[in-house]
Structure formats: C-alpha cells, structure tokens
Amino acid sequence: MTNLIIKYFPKVNITCYSGLFLNYIACHIMMTISALFLYRGLSFKDENHQQQTLEEKKESKKSFRKIFGKSLIQFEVLFVYVLSAVGGALLGAYQSFLFLHLKEIGSTQTVMTLSISIAAAAGIFGYFFSAKIIRFFGGPLRSIFVSLIFFGARCLGYALSPNGWILLIFQPLHILSYALFLTSGIQYMKETSPLIVITSMVSLFQTMFEGVGVLVGSSIGGVIFKNYGGRKLYLIFAFFALFWTMILGVYVFMIKKKRVNKTKEDNN
C-alpha cells in the first residue's frame, strides 16, 4: 500500500509524506478498533477479585502504584526504556523512508513489494525462534546488544546498496534487528518486573519502541531525507546505532559484568 502512495500522491501535487502519515494514522485507528472487538468480554478477574471490598481495592491500587514506581526508577530499567526509544528511532527510519529510498535509487514496484515480503517472513521466523535466540546470545540485554548491531548493519547496507535488488540482501536481517529487539525487550521486562506490573512495564516498553521512538526517528529522518537523501539518512542512522551499541556494550560487558563478579565474590 505504501508503494502505491509513493507512486500516485505526487501526481496530484500532494507530497507522499502526507499520504504516508495518513496511512499510518488510518492503520493505527483500525488496529485500535480491532483490538476493542478482539478483547471484548475478556476478563482476567477471578472470583476472589470480584469479591474484594472497596477498601481492599483501594489498597490493591496503592500497592500497584508503589510497586510500579519502584520498578520504574531502577537505573537498568530506565536504560532499557531509553534503548527502546533508540530502537524505535531506527525502526522509524526503516518504516518511513525505505520505499522513498528505493524509489530514489530507481527500484521497481516488484523490489518494493519483495522488500516487505522478505522482512515479514524473516519477522515470523524471528518471533517463532525468539526464545532460543535470546538464550543463545546469553539473555535479553545481550540480545538487545546484538539487535542494535544488526540494525546498524542493515542501515549501512541500505546506504551502500547501489540498487534495490542488492538492498534486498539485507532484508532477512529483520529477524535479528526488529524481531530480536522487540522480543528481547519484552523478555527483559517479564524477567525483571514483579508479576503485578508486568503488563504495564511491557506496554510502556512497546509505547517507547513503536510509539515515541518511531515518531522521533520519522521526524528527524524526514528532515535528513529532505535535505540529504536516503543514502546519507541511513548512513547517519547506522552510526547512531553503532554509538548506542557501544554504550550498551560498555554497560553489559564491563559495568554489569564487574558488578555480577563482585556480588559472587561477596557471596563466597
């Protein structure tokens, strides 16, 4: 659908950015409506919960807010939320400007369609094998580190590809960039959050990733694309991914590892 917008909107003297934005809004509205019907009538309350008194419900809400606030102010959790926005910015560059970049380098409609199909297929495999991949890399944080590497590699590949057919080579990296990043972030929140706030912590992660991050990445990316084109856009985002990969690497392999070793020594 996006490639059709890119193809036809300029003919009516309306920038394709407007079409992409309207398409994005329309899709999210339809997803929201679909979710309302999908989860209608679904309840997680048990009989004991339904029999709670008003005072017990108030205490439960206070307890939730206290636990949620305590979970949220931890340094590592906040760091992961920052990383979720970083990943979202990289995702925004991919979602919003890939077809524009493909058009810029003279790609056909077939290439545009294949680019989405290959990425979607890779994403399916990524979700299916996500637990095994995360275990293979040594946990959620290390998997996020790996996914940022592949986000950067993907952006660099986009920047250096001479044509759309070569660019398609980098689309299978969707499995180790977007899919791995999303599943690793959710897994991290599930492992580190108390049961009562897991849903809220995961929802906040997804909001930062696919909401705030994508919005920031698309906004900044639009300015870069307009002034410098797709190649420089993806080159800049490749270095952006590399920068945050190094920061996360320092934390995971130096600071956190040192902290874990010290804890083990104290216990011994």
From TrEMBL:
InterPro entries: MFS_assoc_dom, MFS_dom, MFS_MFSD6, MFS_trans_sf. Coiled coil: none annotated. Residues 73-268 form the Major facilitator superfamily (MFS) profile domain. Gene3D superfamilies: MFS general substrate transporter like domains. Keywords: Membrane, Transmembrane, Transmembrane helix. The keyword Transmembrane helix applies. One of its GO terms (molecular function) is transmembrane transporter activity. It comes from the Eukaryota. The chain crosses the membrane at residues 20-39, 67-91, 111-129, 141-159, 165-183, 195-221, 233-254. One of its GO terms (cellular component) is membrane. It is a multi-pass membrane protein. It is found in: Membrane. Belongs to the major facilitator superfamily. MFSD6 family. This is Major facilitator superfamily (MFS) profile domain-containing protein. The lineage of its organism: Eukaryota, Metazoa, Cnidaria, Hydrozoa, Hydroidolina.
